[in-house]
Amino acid sequence: MAPLEADREQHSVAGTWRLAGAILRLPERALLVTDRPDAFLEHVADGLEALLPVRVEISWASLDMDPPAPTMPHHQRLNVELNEAPYALLDVLSVSPLDEHVRFSLEHLSADLTFHVDALTVRRMRRVVRELRAAMTSGADMESAAYSAVEVARRHMEAEAAVLLLSTSSQLKPLASVGQWDLSPAAVAQVAGVARQGLESLAPMAHADTFVTVPIAAQRPARLVLVLRFSPLMRSHSLTFPVLAEMASVAAPFLEAKWRDRLFMELLELNSASEETSTSEMYGRVLRTALRLIPGADSGTLLTRTEPDAPFRYQAAIGFDLEQLAQQEVTEKAARAWYGADDEGWRRGTPRILCRADADSMDEHISQDLDPAPMLYDQIKATLCLPVLRDGQVMAVLNLDNLNEAGEFGEDTRQLATLFGPPLASLLHRQNTRDLLTKAALTDELTGLANRRAFNGALAGELRRADRGALGPSVLHMDLRSFKAINDALGHDFGDNVLKGVASAIQTHIRVVDTAARYGGDEFMALLVETPAEEALKVAERIRQAVAQIDVGLGPTHIDIGVASYGPDGHGAAELVRVADQRMYAAKQIAL
């Protein structure tokens, strides 16, 4: 070989080795510029195009599952993986064949790129997760923790906007939002559609070139979904997904813990409010709270009973006709039809979930004890039944139903219902105890009628209604004639039995809405709601005749009655009672 040719070959070999070395040093140079895996690969691609007469095309695995065929006759494909899964393809395209040493260098470069992409992604995940944990830990409540998660995700993903949505059975509720969102109906519907697709997915997913969704849940079905909106110029790819998946796994337990905290806080608030809330209103508030905080239900009922052997009665309903339901007594057998044959679970207060397929076989059995029409049995797709215990006995039943989707109840529903049970039992027990004490304070112990305090309160309420335009009440003042003679002749125990008989006669001849009271000694009062004087006189006569049927061995029992009516006899409580008292004594004088 001539010296000149030898020099040229030596120079060519040296140049080839320098070129190969430059190709292998490209990752080091790219790392000096960026720590983002996607930008890292783009810098390497630019470097290859600067070193070689080639064009480099990148295909991201998440967007281009079937990358186009090479457009040049000579090419070499570099496969880059992330966590042993496809991440990107770098197609090195050339018009002329690539040198053997260059091809060898590119093969090594492919392995180096995978190593660096893995390392950069892990490093980035750690940084993002560390920031996310710190932000969510500092959140005082559900909203602040949710906002922190959304802000961290938007910033690190370089998204234009982000929103965290809570899925209920019928709607999506924003918990936290960052950035500007188009609130037009069409735009809102588009985001809702994307979010529902994301909830059904098991992992982050891209939607066209604009949205990425991330379901956030430790278990299925997911209730929370993060929606990220990107600029159309910024293509999201597989880099987004492992980072977002890791963020979701970190955020889920934080948000679930905050949700449990909210459940307990709201139950504590209900306990605090029970002192100033009527029992009927408290039942409604309990059911509304359960529907809001126990996921998956869109309707429900609450039943209670006063004694372990007594039937249940409907106290609150949402999605059903409470007025019709309240007329039915529910045996324990019927209440348990939706629970199933798990005796131990029923006695322990364990919540149980049934779907439509499980409940179909029970419909015939249930209808034997209940009118099924108000319950809309045919529309219930799934139900959760929670027995609520007091002193080891099931004294209430909380039924949460879904009328639209059979799969809306998940393990999170069961877990939260389990947490809901003991505080609810305590609340209902406290409310029941308060009602008993209140009733005792307003009830005459001997006759079971209202006492003077209860009567005065009821009268004041009816007078307020009358002052606002309602038809006014009438008042009956009643006094037994010669009751002292009965006590003296037959004893006080016998006299007490006479008072009980008189109380029963009065109660029998007034309506449920009216109030009968023992005013003191042998004096009785009756408040007749929205009753004019003419009707009140008829009621008084029926009571007088009924009492006369009570024969204690000393002849008929007589009661003197005075009637006063709102309007013609006055407008104030004291005035009506005084007029009725005067007329009662006038009747007594005539009889004497």
Folded structure, characterized:
- With 592 residues, the protein is of the alpha+beta class.
- It has four domains: 125 residues, Beta-Lactamase, CATH 3.30.450; 126 residues, 2-Layer Sandwich (Beta-Lactamase); 162 residues, 2-Layer Sandwich (Beta-Lactamase); 140 residues, Reverse transcriptase/Diguanylate cyclase domain (Alpha-Beta Plaits), CATH 3.30.70.270.
- 50% of the residues lie in helices and 20% in strands.
- It is built from 19 helices and 18 strands.
- The strands form four sheets. Strands 11-10-9-14-13-12 form a six-stranded antiparallel sheet.
- A hairpin with a 7-residue loop joins β7 and β8.
- The chain is rod-shaped and about 135 Å long.
- The N terminus is likely disordered.
General form: rod-shaped
> In what order do the strands lie side by side in the largest sheet?
11-10-9-14-13-12
Instruction: Please state roughly what percent of the residues sit in beta strands, choosing from under 5%, 5-15%, 15-25%, 25-35%, 35-45% or over 45%.
Output: 15-25%
Total domain modules: 4
Assembly level: single chain
Nearest-integer average pLDDT: 83
Q: Label the CATH architecture of the largest domain.
A: 2-Layer Sandwich
The parts where pLDDT drops under 50 for at least 5 residues are 1-11, 364-368
- CATH top level class name of the largest domain: Alpha Beta
Count of beta strands: 18
